Amino acid sequence: MLTVALPGSVVAIALLSAYNGPSVLTFGVPLGGSAAILILAYFVRILPLAVRPARAALDALGPDVERAAASLGAGRWRTVLRVVLPGIFPSLAAALLLCFVTGAGEFVASQLLYDTHTRPVSVQIAEHFRTDPDSAFALSFCLMLVSVGTVCFGAWIQQRARK
């Protein structure tokens, strides 16, 4: 949860200092200005938002359900695929949707890490706001529609999972 507490600029500068040059972790390829460093930044900043609900769902499921499946003859993988995943699916879907909506609007880390070829929509909105506010409003409205559509899609998936 530390990356949620840290400002986006701190995370972005730490990623740039670690991966801007060739590194063993990046197989000798510098990640600065690439889409990979943006994805890594979003992953690092937003993953804790998904871990909390998933952990809560696993704790709510409890070990008794797994023991019951094992006592009925289900193997480990069958228990995970047939019992555990369907039990925590609504929480996982909600967590992933929360991560997507949060990541789509991430601005601070994006502002420091983007390149001309990898400009995120949040940075594009900010740049248009200075020169052409109408297009910034249009992009903001599109981002809002995508967010609302994502939430509605998630609600639909959760309803189907409960049936």
Q: What would a concise description of this structure say?
A:
The chain is mainly α and 163 residues long. It is built from 7 helices and no strands.
Largest sheet: none
Structural Rg: 20 Å
Silhouette = globular
Number of strands: 0
Helix and strand pattern? HHHHHHH
Structure, explained:
- The chain is mostly helical and 163 residues long.
- It has one domain (2-162): MetI-like (MetI-like fold).
- The chain contains 7 helices and no strands.
- The chain has helices spanning 2-5, 8-19, 35-71, 76-104, 108-113, 121-131, 133-162.
Q: What is this structure's SSE topology?
A:
Layout: H1 2-5, H2 8-19, H3 35-71, H4 76-104, H5 108-113, H6 121-131, H7 133-162
Helix pairs in contact: 2-3, 3-4, 4-7, 6-7
Task: Name the descriptors.
MetI-like fold, globular, single chain, 79% helix, 163 residues, 7 helices, mainly alpha
